[in-house]
Design a protein that fits this description.
This protein is about 25% helix and about 35% strand. The protein has helices spanning about 10-20, 50-60, 60-70, 80-85, 185-199, and strands spanning about 1-5, 25-30, 40-45, 75-80, 90, 105, 115-125, 140-145, 145-150, 155-160, 165-170, 175-180.
Length: about 200
């Protein structure tokens, strides 16, 4: 069973449908009690960092996630859901991330690249990981974001170049994140979701 956190600003339904198509049992949850027996958690997100942060902290889902991660439960963050795994974001200095990763999300330079970064782009695998099993060292995925996590050698599994080389797949222990949308990335994205279910 995959538990998908359904914040007001998320693509939880798309992730749920993708898992259903894969034949993987999944459910969308919105409060901490529903995570009591979770084994795998997906944290999707679109929109604003501050809005997602406030939802997680006001609902106390951040407390449940902290406890579950410490117990070894695996978590996958998607797009904004990956960025919220970090310390903070330039988008919303007054709100905090979950602090599972020692990274701050930064905004793309609009003078150098078109912002937001939207559409298909290349992902280059930097380190092997179970979440990337069966994928080519270079594969395409669908992105839609204005902020990014910078490359960090000990955390980055894959990078994408968009005026700056940013982290497109990140991992630390039982926490992983993808900046792109696997539910919109066709076969490559389905492989990511399947790998997470099997991990």
């Amino acid at each position: 069973m995959i538990h998908i956190i359904g914040s007001p600003s998320s693509n939880a339904r798309g992730v749920y449908c993708a898992y259903t198509d894969l034949g993987v049992e999944a459910k969308i949850v919105t409060n901490p009690l529903e995570l009591a027996h979770a084994k795998k958690i997906v944290l999707p997100g679109v929109g604003a960092f501050g809005e997602l942060s406030r939802f997680l902290f006001e609902s106390k889902l951040n407390v449940s996630l902290q406890e579950l991660v410490e117990s070894g439960i695996k978590v996958l963050g998607i797009c904004l859901g990956m960025q919220i795994l970090g310390e903070s974001s330039e988008e919303s200095k007054e709100t905090a991330g979950l602090k599972f990763l020692n990274l701050e999300s930064r905004k793309f330079n609009a003078l150098e690249s078109r912002v937001p970064h939207t559409g298909w782009d290349q992902v280059s695998i930097y380190k092997n990981h179970a979440i990337l099993k069966g994928l080519s060292t270079e594969f395409s995925a669908y992105f839609s974001h204005s902020y990014y996590m910078p490359f960090q050698d000990d955390l980055s599994l894959a990078v994408t170049d968009y005026g700056v080389a940013f982290t497109s797949v990140v991992a630390k222990g039982n926490v992983v994140g993808v900046q792109f949308h696997p539910e919109r990335s066709q076969g490559n994205g389905r492989k990511i979701l399947s790998n997470f279910a099997d991990w």
